[in-house]
């Protein structure tokens, strides 16, 4: 079930390198960085690969579809998934 959060700081966003893959790349364009104060709906955490390392990420949802991913450790909300 999606949760609505407000980003406490600017956060980089990522895209999958292929639709069914597990590798991530940095997003480009206007949503490459989601700004502080931006409200987002997030899904459940999953493990994907960025920079040759497993990363815990959450999908950022828009109208129920994945818009991008953000790395949990970069969110600045350690209490979110405890």
Describe what this molecule looks like in 3D:
This protein is mainly beta. The protein has one domain. The protein is built from one helix and nine strands; from the N terminus they run E-E-E-E-E-E-E-E-E-H. The protein has one helix at residues 72-75; strands at 3-6, 11-12, 14-16, 24-26, 33-34, 39-42, 46-50, 53-62, 65-71. Strands 1, 6, 7, 8 and 9 form a five-stranded antiparallel sheet that branches. The protein is globular and about 30 Å long.
Radius of gyration: 12 Å
Mean pLDDT across all residues, rounded? 93
Q: Can you tell me the number of structural domains?
A: 1
Measured as a percent range, the helix fraction is under 10%
Structural class: mainly beta
Question: Into which percentage range does the β-strand content fall?
Answer: over 45%
Overall shape: it is globular
Give the count of helical stretches. Answer: 1
Distance between the termini: 16 Å
Sheet with the most strands, sense and barrel status: 5 strands, antiparallel
Total E-strand runs: 9
Task: Note the run of SSEs as H and E.
Answer: EEEEEEEEEH
Low-confidence stretches: none
